[in-house]
Amino acid sequence: MEQYNLVKNTLDQIPQANANAKRIVGLVKESGRITGYQLSDKSFVSKPEAVSLAKQGQIAGVGIAHRGDTEYLKSIPNGNENDNLGNLPSVSPEG
Q1: pLDDT tens digit string along 33-54?
Q2: Which helix (H) or strand (E) holds 30?
Q3: d(CA 38, CA 27)
Q4: Which runs of E-coded beta strand occur in 40-79?
Q5: Which domain does 67 fall in, by range?
Q6: Among 70, 88, 77, which residue's Cα sits nearest to residue 28?
């Protein structure tokens, strides 16, 4: 539980997800860096779009953090490693 609270403290904001919020199911990467996400409805969004959607409660299971001036998404710890963003598969928007 202590580790859970420690990770939650690194988040700037944990938006309340709407009842119909989507989940992130895949990572779009370029040169090893995450540039976007695939959502549970099979759509693709850029990293900035995903941050905006999460702030609006349209993506569940994530919080907002920042590095320098850049905001990004982090998994909200829930005890299930399988749905952590870092453990999701890489996907390609082309196919």
Answers
A1: 999 999 999 999 999 999 999 9
A2: strand 24-30
A3: 6
A4: 44-46, 62-67, 70-75
A5: 2-91
A6: 88
